[in-house]
Structure formats: structure tokens, C-alpha cells
Amino acid sequence: MTIFGVPTQALFGQLLIGLINGAFYALLSLGLSVIFGLLNIINFAHGAQYMMGAFVAYFALQWTGLGYWPSLLLAPVVVGLFGIVLERTMLKRLYQLDHLYGLLLTFGVALVVQGVFRNQFGSSGLPYTAPAQLTGGYNLGFMFLPTYRAWVVVFSLVVCFATWYVIERTKLGAYLRAATENPTLVQAFGINVPRMITLTYGFGVALAALAGVLAAPIYQVNPLMGADLIIVVFAVVVIGGLGSIMGSIVTGFGLGVIEGFTKVFYPEASNTVIFVIMALVLLVRPAGLFGRAT
To answer: Which one of 22, 66, 214, 248 is separated from 158 by 20 to 30 angstroms, measured CA to CA?
Structure first.
């Protein structure tokens, strides 16, 4: 059976690949949007922190025997603590300055982190196996659905919408948003705003590390695994709207699917389609699809 002249199995296979890529786009752009929307920091170290999450899972398995499931919690905590130290020692000095300073600092941190890992482990990928509970797959007739890939898509959706709910629909999220608008007023209510800002940055970094653990069994653990991805993720954030939580989620998954279908119908454009869409969106809506003009 074919659809538009393309075999059904190939079409749905690319749809699955698009959803997988979209899951990582959404998780990473969500972390970037949380950090930018609440802290006004353009975190260019996000790709390196994504890579660090995968390496923490790899180290936990090799050194302590801790498998995939504990690493889903361990890696975000460890890399999130790294982010907290980074924010307390460096980033907090830049909040009153132009965004460019934060971008340059985090870009430098990314280069240092990637250089250290590349020097120690080279550029080849290190294998990381999926847990036994998520091996195998299901034959749906029109396609074969690997269990682990289905888990990544579903788990990413749950994390993304849980984050959106906390920030947009809870009292904690209201405090976070208020602290970015009027920190003096929020502090007058007895809320420790600097600590809240630090924990927010740590949480955004932890989302990147979580994406790294999810990606490790699919893409292997590589010191440069975040270097190429981060450019695409920034494009996703710009298209969705800087600082927009829902924009990051919808745009991440949507662009992943569009990229997957482009590989079927026009493979030559698959590496540039996201950037073409970004240019078109910025021409029509400079603030992004879900962003608000300042």
C-alpha cells in the first residue's frame, strides 16, 4: 500500500523518527525557554549539558552498575547541581547586562565542557543499551514500533506538559513569573528570589540532562552529541517564541514531524527545512508563533 506514491511502512517509519527527534527538540527547547523566559539568559551551554546527562548515565552504569532507571533521576540531579554552581559563580553577575554577555559566557562554557570530554573520550560514540523492559517492539501491521522509541515519545510528552502545568497553572509558577517582572515586590512577601532564580536555572539544565539520558540508547554517548543539535533547538525556540513554554512543546514536536516527512518527500531539504520555516515565521511574526511582542 502506498500514500502519495510512498510505501506506507516508510511513511510511518519517518513519522516515528520525526516524533523521536521532536521529543528531544521539545525537551531541550523547553529547558531553554524556562531559562530565558524566567531568567533572561540565553543558555548556549544547553547542548553540552544535554551531553553531560548522557555521560552521567554512562558513568553510572560503568562505575557503579546503576542502570537506566536510576539514571533518569541521577543525571538530572547531578547536571542540575552543575548548573546551580554555574549560575551562582558566573551567571548571577550578568543579569543586569545585555543578553549577549550571557550568551558568550555559556558559549565559552560549552566549548570547555565539550573539549574536556572530547579529549578524554574521543569523538566516537560509546554504546549504552536500553533497559530490558523496553527492548523489542510491536508489529502494528503498517509498521514496526520499537518499545523504547514509543517510551521516549510518551515520557517526553508527560514531562513537557507537567512542566507547562507547574509554570502556568500553579502558585509556584505564578511566583516564578512574578519574580521576573518585579523581584522587589515578590521578595517583600518573604520569598527568596535569588534562590528561586538559581533553582529555576538548575531545573532548566536538568531537563537537558534528562533528554541526554533518553537519547543515549538511541544515538549513543558522544562528546559532540549536543553540538549540532543545539543549533536546531535554538531555531525551534525562535519559531515557537522566546520564553513560551507551550510554544516550545508544540513547535518541537511539530517541526520534528515536518522534518521526518521532508526526508520522505524531498530528502535534499531535510537539513534546512527547519531554518526555512524559521525565516518565514520571523517575516510574518517576529515574536514567534506563540511569543508576545514586547
So the answer is: 66
The tally of domains found in the chain comes to: 1
Helical H runs in 122-228?
147-169, 171-181, 183-188, 193-219
> Who's near 290: CB < 8 A, 6+ residues apart?
240, 241, 244, 246, 247, 250, 251
Question: How many Å apart are CA 221 and CA 224, to the nearest integer?
Answer: 9
**144 membership: H or E segment, kind and range:** strand 144-146
Q: Indicate whether 106 belongs to any domain.
A: no
For residue 205, being part of any structural domain is answered with yes
Q: Which three cell numbers stand for residue 61?
A: 552504569
Query: Which residues span the domain enclosing 268?
Result: 2-95+114-284
State the chain's maximal CA–CA distance in angstroms: 66
Cα–Cα distance, 81 to 95 (Å, whole number): 20
Task: Flag whether 249 is in a domain.
Answer: yes
Residues 79-116 have pLDDT tens digits of 999 999 999 999 988 887 888 898 999 999 999 999 99
Q: Is the sign of the CA dihedral 58, 81, 205, 114 positive or negative?
A: negative
- The reply to whether 61 falls in a domain is yes
